[in-house]
Amino acid sequence: MSGLSDHSIKNLPQHLAIIMDGNGRWAKKKGFLRSIGHKNGVDALRNIATASAELGIKYLTVYAFSTENWSRPQSEVKALMTLLVSSLKKELKTLMKNNIRLSAIGDISLLPTKCRRELLEVMETTKRNQRMTLSLALSYSSRVEMVQCMKKIGQKLIEGEIKISDIDEAHIENNLFTFGMPDPDLLIRTGGEQRVSNYLLWQIAYCELYFSDKLWPEFDKEDLIHALQDYNNRERRFGKTSEQLHEEETNG
Ligand code: IPE
Ligand code: IPE
Ligand code: MG
Prior knowledge:
Layout: E1 15-19, H1 23-30, H2 34-55, E2 59-66, H3 74-97, E3 100-105, H4 113-125, E4 132-140, H5 142-158, H6 169-173, E5 186-189, E6 208-211, H7 221-232, H8 242-250
Parallel strand pairs: 1-2, 1-5, 2-4, 3-4, 5-6
Helix pairs in contact: 1-2, 2-3, 3-4
């Protein structure tokens, strides 16, 4: 693999988030229908999820369908939902073999019944898998997530279950779709765009960002390792100075 050794990555992100963008442009470039781009996008996801688990990443959260994506042409939405059902059926074996737990974030009540049922079934079957949690962001919008969080907290206040002074960052985190997960350490977006498109806005407060020009269906393990090596060379200061971090390192 062109001299890229997995072992050269000392600091792996515990949680990797990906915006899998560029399926449509990949298909167009090849003269295929957009739906073929999405199909090849599933192949890329299988490879990246397997590689991530093998490398030791504990959480992988991928943007598969945004709330805004519901406004795409109905034919594309339908093709994506059909692909979701068939992929869930097909990938269960790979998930079990690789000891990967499947989870979902987003308003899955909006998914067609068949998709939701299949999704819940795969989540149930894989719930004891421990190597990595793969979360699919489906019908996901970070702003909707925050609105839902505020409503839940408001309800608890009205019912007297909590006081205003109980509301802190941890309390908010516990009412987001991502409760129980650490924040993403690295966010990769493929497809050349440099924006976050309503993805995990609260959770990426201190996340490292990495943009790749590769279109998602052509993003492979080698590209993933490049991104991880880049992350490995970053200094995450969390507001402190570089000197403070070095001091902390020498003092253990
Ligand atoms: C990302 O690829 C997948 C989804 C949004 C479902 P796109 O479909 O956005 O591909 P481009 O950006 O049009 O190339
Ligand atoms: C973001 O991609 C959502 C997914 C990858 C599922 P989009 O292609 O929908 O993003 P925008 O609209 O170009 O920002
Ligand atoms: Mg796109």
